[in-house]
Amino acid sequence: MLQKNCRLGGGFAKANILIYVGLRSAPPNLRLMHNFFACHATRSKTTENLNMTTQNQIQPRQLGSTGLTVFPIALGCMGMSGIYGVADENESIATIQAALDDGITLLDTGDFYASGHNEMLIGRAIKDRRDQALVSVKFGALRTPDGGWIGIDTRPASVKNFVAYSLNQLGVDHIDIYRPA
Fold first, then answer.
1. Spans in the chain with pLDDT lower than 50
2. Catalytic residue at 113?
3. Which of 81, 94, 115, 128 has the fewest CB neighbours in a 10 Å radius?
């Protein structure tokens, strides 16, 4: 938690703002998370401090008709595998675990993020905590060795291959949300 002055309703108040610090340069999803918390803060009746916690201020939401419920903001993990620049693996794992501790339930990745490194990172972070996380994996994107995009492959045989690799790299027995990239 970081103490910060926030502008609310024309005035300023002290706030405890939850900031995830696992990345050296914050990608847009983390800036969005910061803004989301700031916008959903509520004034305490006894102090000018703002209570900003995921557990008692923001209600989970149901995804479709599957019965899965999630915190309304997911943690996108792509930047934790060097997509936005150098990323520290220990900080990234700590970030995922802090997000789970604070009620974030949905972790988003793609099987093509850093050639599977991102899935392995998430697997290490949620080991022994699988019941606290919903894992969303994008699949099918085809990349060149230098990281360029060359297409998408959603043929049934390819999907079976992609999901087998993802399950292995994540170290899990199921993937909660599996969708084409």
1. 1-55
2. yes
3. 128
